[in-house]
Design a protein that fits this description.
With 194 residues, the chain is of the alpha/beta class. The chain has seven helices and five strands, in the order αβαβαβαβααβα. Helix 2 runs antiparallel to helix 4, helix 2 runs parallel beside helix 6 and helix 4 packs parallel to helix 5. InterPro entries: RNR-II_ins_dom (IPR054158).
């Protein structure tokens, strides 16, 4: 077991080695971040019948913005994913501007889980990549299965970037999903993690 004692008392999900969830709700994305940051591997479904339940894209108004201060915690990082996804899927709100100032600097000690903090950069890169993907969509369009898969992979990259944590994923997809099949076939045999 990777955690015991106080870390388990604070976040009981850390006791689990793996979890599964369908990506069929906006909260599935933030839940994936939360689980991965706690050390739980995540199996997730991007099968068509799950992805079809996600709301369509409704881009925020670019002229209006709101600030979101990201908390320096697993919950804070997961909440930033939730806020971004809701900004693009709950319809016509203000554009979100993330404030990373509360996130501890790279190399700072992680008291509860041990190790060193990755700093805000991995999360910034994750949010920028996800927002870029969402901005390429038109209002009223549904995310495709491969786009949902890519978003989950961007989330895992943010978790991995610290060098201490691991992010184990397994993707379940429809057997006739050509885009997902092509993405797996063209996956290199070795992918350097850092």
């Amino acid at each position: 077991m990777q955690f015991g004692g106080k870390p388990i008392e604070i976040s009981p999900n850390r006791i689990y080695n793996c979890a599964y969830l369908p990506i069929d709700h906006i909260d599935s994305f933030s839940e994936t971040m939360f689980l991965l940051l706690g050390g739980t591997g995540v199996g997730y479904s991007v099968q068509r019948h799950h992805v079809a339940k996600l709301p369509v894209i409704q881009k925020p108004y670019q002229k209006r913005k709101k600030r979101f201060l990201i908390g320096d915690s697993i919950e804070g990082w997961a909440d930033s994913i939730k806020v971004l996804m809701k900004t693009y899927m709950n319809g016509g709100g203000s554009r979100v501007e993330f404030d990373y100032s509360d996130i501890r600097a790279k190399g700072a000690r992680l008291v509860t889980s041990g190790g060193k903090a990755p700093g805000p950069q991995p999360l910034k890169e994750c949010l920028v990549k996800i927002e870029g993907l969402l901005n390429q969509k038109e209002n009223g369009e549904q995310l495709s299965t491969i786009e949902v898969h890519d978003i989950v992979c961007h989330i895992a990259d943010a978790v991995l970037a610290g060098g201490i944590r691991r992010a184990a994923l397994i993707s379940l997809f429809s057997a006739d999903d050509e885009q997902m099949i092509v993405s797996i076939v063209h996956l290199p045999c070795y992918i350097p993690l850092n």
